[in-house]
Amino acid sequence: MILQKGTRMKKKFYYIGLSILRSTVKFLCFLAVFSTVNTLFMRFTEQFGEENREGWSLAIMIFVMLSVSWVFYHFNKRAQMYFMEFSNSLGNSRKSHTFARVLRSMDFYNDAGVCCILSSVSPFIFPYTDIERLFFENTNLNAVIQKLLIGIFIGFLFCIIQWFTIFDVRKKWLRNKEISSKNETLRIVAYLFFITVMYTVGFYIAMAYVPGLSVYAFLLKELFWEILTVIGIIFLCLNGKRIRKRKKFIAGLKRISTKSGYELSKIKKPYLSVFRKMQGASFTIEAHQKTYQCKLISGKRKGIPIIFSDEGFLLFRRIIRIGKTKLFSIYSKYDYSFESDVKKCLIITCVPAICCFKDSCGHMHRIESGEKIGEYTVYTPDGFLGCLDRDCLDR
Q1: What does the pLDDT read at residue 217?
Q2: Residue 332: how many CB atoms within 10 A of its CB?
Q3: Which residues are within 8 A (CB) of 267 and not within 5 positions of it... i.e. 6 or more apart?
Q4: Which helix (H) or strand (E) is 116 found in, with range?
Q5: For residue 347, what are the β-bridge partners?
Q6: Residues with pLDDT less than 50, the chain
Q7: Angle, nearest 10°, between helix axes 129-136 and 143-175?
């Protein structure tokens, strides 16, 4: 028992030490990216003769701080494993994931402490000239006090941002319990390079074109219908396949219902539900003296996987890459649950290349048409129509 306790304490101190080192590296990366983006931005925008460019420096600082904090915590395999062990020990993932618990977590204490110390010291070493000018240009405060206040301000921003970052990333970890084995250092470096380029170009474009908003407003008014037509064409090009797949299924459903004498209810918002979440079942059909309630779900793209949960929701996963390197994933949630006393079917129109089921234990596998998920059965359009025609939806 004493030996086990000593091992746990040793492991805990080792984790704290590595967390402190990681937070230090994170802060240095923040300084490097912010300095690079801000310097390039100031140099490139001199030609515009804009006053009060210091406000843009503050915006750059906040965006860089958000991105750096996110990438260093999101790609932290050690922190993920530590959190998942803690979450499993509680036996309730919700108890382990609240705003209040984040404030009491070791990850938050370590990072907040390191960032507050380094933030307080950094203004005396690193010149935040533009930020100091923004806040203290018209004051007579002592230079030392100014630097100290800037340091406190940066430390406060880091604490707030890290609080929300830990909460948001842990929510994703609980949703996707896989521990990545890929090189997290390479991912972080690639992401930092990406945001350096993106923010340099993005803020330059913002400075160059935001002052011309009045011109754009005039053009928008004069060319309103032309612009609306172009937007409509682009929208149809991007979503035409999803609409065609839905239309094809509905046509096939009506055709087989008419041919076989099935009683088909009105389909609830058949095309609007391609783009918006709809409550309840989409339609009810009576066939072979049996009643089925069905909900239509549309995939996004062939390359955007659908991950079903047994808790009444599914996730669309968008993977952001640079070349072949995966940077991060963006998840969007869709609630597929509905109340019914008869068999409940989920029909996926525009089926993606990957469609998976992930249980509460984190195990994931691909699903096929006709597979059950709790009270629901998932079908492809052809699978549902075929089973309906052969009277095997109950199998």
Answers
A1: 54
A2: 11
A3: 250, 282, 283, 296
A4: helix 106-121
A5: 296, 379
A6: 3
A7: 110
pLDDT at residue 313, as a whole number? 85
DSSP letters spanning 48-75: GT-S-THHHHHHHHHHHHHHHHHHHHHT
In this prediction, residue 3 carries a pLDDT of 46
Predicted pLDDT of residue 269: 87
Cβ(53)–Cβ(45) below 8 Å: yes
Tell how far CA 208 is from the center of its chain: 29
> What is the C-alpha separation between 229 and 227, in angstroms, rounded?
5
User: Do 358 and 364 form a contact (C-beta atoms < 8 A)?
Assistant: yes
Structure tokens at 92: 């309730």
The DSSP-derived string for 268-326 is SSTTGGGTS---S-SEEEEETTEEEEEEEEE-S-TTS-EEEETTSEEEEEEEEEETTEE
DSSP-derived pairing of the beta strands 355-358 and 306-309: parallel
Query: Which pTM value belongs to this model?
Result: 0.55
Nearest by Cα to 167 from 85, 69, 28: 69
Measured between alpha carbons, how far is 244 from 188 in angstroms, rounded to an integer? 40
Distances (CA, A) of 374 to 20, 248, 360, 361, 368: 44, 28, 12, 15, 15
Q: Select from 165, 162, 216, 199 the least CA-distant residue to 56.
A: 199
**Which of 386, 380, 313, 392 lies closest to 347 in space, CA to CA?**
380
Closest alpha carbon to 23 in 115, 108, 104 = 115
Bridge partners of 291, per DSSP, are: 286
At 182 the pLDDT is 67
What's the DSSP call for residue 93?
A: T
Beta bridge pairs of residue 298: 349
pLDDT in tens, 196-235: 999 888 888 877 666 555 555 556 656 667 777 887 787 7
Report in angstroms the alpha-carbon separations of 363 from 175, 218, 366.
11, 55, 11
Q: Are 314 and 334 in contact (CB under 8 A)?
A: yes
Q: Residue written as tokens 């028992």? A: 1
